[in-house]
Design brief:
By secondary structure, the chain is of the alpha/beta class. Helices cover about 50% and strands about 20% of the residues. The strands form 2 sheets. Strands 1-2-3-5-7-10 form a 6-stranded mixed sheet, sandwiched between helices. Strands 4-6-8-9 form a 4-stranded mixed sheet.
């Protein structure tokens, strides 16, 4: 059985690698739990200056695991944990990101991707909405771009993700893009990083405090609806749902 999340450490930076090949690193209850445990350990370890969240395989995260989805409250807790961690959390993406996986990017302080990465908010295509992942995304991402991609489910590339604010930077060699960022973090003091992150995340945490309960309830309501059942069944059966015209 796969460990789901692997941990490596190098010069004050801990890398957490999502490795759930059976579901393209989708957010199952088990994966969310393992990732939360890894973040907790990083938060307590004085040798960790920053955390890099990355992936095995060609998909960073395929969104919620429709066969074993996490409770919406638990997913909100994971996103908040990334935002609240008093150490920078960086996303390193070399593949595809869909739906709930984009919430992980939104929660991270810095997100970089290779030129071949692709992104899509596919929730509307299965009868639900990007509810809880909006908590970190709405305060940080261009609202006009979100309106388009939330409503259509269109796929977009890394350059567009940078333009919208979903990504910090992108390039052909993601590690070349990431290297000066990690160098800067290694030169920064732990106290300075923690205090600066508090400044940067204050507005995001206000959104959690204000909206988390309502968006969690909305997510649960939508996922239990008849249209969502049809959408998820169609997705699993690799067919169009009944409303496609």
């Amino acid at each position: 059985m796969t460990a789901l999340v692997h941990t490596a450490h190098d010069r004050a930076v801990t890398t957490l690698t999502l490795d759930s090949p059976g579901n393209r690193n989708a957010l199952s209850a088990a994966l969310v739990g393992r990732l939360a445990d890894g973040l907790t350990r990083c938060g307590k370890d004085s040798d960790v200056r920053a955390v890099v969240l990355t992936h095995a395989g060609n998909t960073f995260c395929a969104g919620a695991d429709l066969r074993d989805p996490p409770d919406p409250d638990v997913l909100v807790g994971l996103l908040r944990q990334i935002v609240e961690l008093r150490k920078p959390v960086l996303a390193r993406v070399t593949g595809h990101v869909r739906a709930g996986g984009l919430g992980l990017l939104g929660a991270c302080d810095i997100a970089v991707a290779g030129a071949g990465a692709s992104f899509a908010f596919t929730e509307v295509r299965i009868g639900v909405a990007p509810a809880v992942i909006s908590l970190p995304l709405l305060p940080r991402t261009d609202p006009r771009a979100l309106a388009r991609y939330y409503l259509t489910g269109e796929r977009f590339d890394a350059a567009e993700a940078v333009r919208t604010g979903l990504l910090t930077a992108a390039g052909d060699d993601v590690d070349a893009v990431l290297a000066p960022v990690l160098d800067g973090l290694r030169r920064a003091s732990p106290q300075g990083l923690a205090a600066t992150k508090d400044l940067l995340t204050a507005k995001v945490l206000e959104a959690f405090d204000r909206d988390a309960a309502g968006l969690t309830a909305l997510s649960a309501e939508l996922f239990s609806s008849a249209q969502a059942r049809e959408g998820m069944t169609a997705f699993l059966e690799r067919r169009d749902p009944a409303w496609v015209v």
